[in-house]
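Priority: low. Protein: Cupin domain-containing protein. Input follows.
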Amino acid sequence: MTSTGIAVDELIHRLELQPHPEGGFYRETWRAAQQVWRAGANVDPDAARSASTAIYYLLCNGAHSAWHRIRSDEVWHFYAGAPLEVYVLDAVTGALVTHRLGNALDHPGTTFQAVVRAGDWFAARCTDPSTFALVGCTVAPGFEFSEFELADVDALAAQYPAHHELIVQLRPAGASGQHTG
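Result:
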C-alpha cells in the first residue's frame, strides 16, 4: 500500500505505467513540440530532438534502476512514497555522487530534485526495498531510446573499481554481463 492507501498495482494502473528496460515502471507524460539539434549536428530533420520530455517513474517491489546513461541532462523530481537514492558516477572525476530524493519536509537530508548530467552513468533504488518511490524525470534535449545505453556492468566495475560492489548490486535484472540499449 502507498501512503495514500492505494496499492502499488492500482498506482501502476491509474498512471498507465509500463515496465521500463532499466527496471521499474514509467509513462511518458509530455514531449515538447519544439525541436532542437545537438551542438555540431546538421539541421537534418532526422537529427532533431524534442526540446524536452517528461515521464512518471515508479520503483517498487524491490526493483531498482540499473546502471545506464543518456546523452541529455536529466532532472529527477520526487512526488510520493519513501526516499530513494540516485547514484551517479561522475565521468570527469570518477567520484560516486549520491542524491537522496524524498519529501524534504518530512525526511531531513533528502531533496525534491536532483540533476544527472548528460553522459554520466547512473542508477537508483529505494532506501527501503519494501517501499515505493514515485518520481518524475525531465530530460533536455528530449529523451530518445536510441540515446539510452544500459551498462556492461563488468566493464563499468572495472572502470570504477572503488565502486565495484554497488555497481554489481545494481546490474539489470537477470543480467550477468553486457547489455546495451
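The helical segments are 8-14, 153-159, 164-169. DSSP finds three helices and 13 strands in the chain.
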